[in-house]
Amino acid sequence: ALTVLAMIAVGEVFRIAARNSVAERSAKLAERELLFRELQHRVNNDFTIVNSLLDLQRRRSSDPEVRQTLEQAMGRIRSVARVHHHLYTLPDIGAIDLRQYLADLCTALSEAAFPPTGLHLRCHCDEAYMPRSRAIAVGLVTNELVTNAVKHAFPDDREGNIDVRFQQTGEGWRLSVGDTGIVLLAAYVLP
Questions:
Q1: Reported pTM
Q2: Which residue in 120, 157, 136, 122 sits closest to 86, CA to CA?
Q3: What pLDDT, on the 0 to 100 scale, is given for residue 189?
Q4: How far apart are CA 33 and CA 23, in angstroms?
Q5: 23-76: per-residue pLDDT in tens?
Q6: Which SS3 state, helix, strand or coil, does residue 83 take?
Q7: Strand positions, DSSP E, the chain
Q8: How far apart are CA 27 and CA 30, in angstroms?
């Protein structure tokens, strides 16, 4: 009977130790989650501050080239900020939902870069999850191509469409940005 009592006591001690260990791990995980959310909040604030400072400089400048360069930098910062936002809203922070990211990016570009005319940005993306570094690259290239189309393909408040497509092909993934604007002839041939 004493042996059975000893076994029950050892079992109870083991159960209590396991429960305490799980509670301690849960507390540490909750603390890490809280710290991670606080870090993400601070990083988002930093993106906003940098963007605001660039916008302030852009508004103060009378040089159109400086204003244009600052607008491009602001667009790039917004693009990286969107990827960053998606990094911590997904359950798996190692992959970015590119369909959602490009849709959000296109919405932001429409709101920020399009003049109030009949210019429309459409986004078509196959389901894709990409590592952070690749998603940033796709976002930056998309931002650049859409910005260039707005500036060069639609002068004098022309109406038209810009289509962003990210599709899986037999060879991998293809990003294309097309528009219904004017055609620019190449001044030189790229090697």
A1: 0.60
A2: 136
A3: 47
A4: 15
A5: 888 888 888 878 877 887 888 889 889 999 999 999 999 999 899 888 888 877
A6: helix
A7: 95-97, 119-125, 129-131, 160-169, 172-179
A8: 5
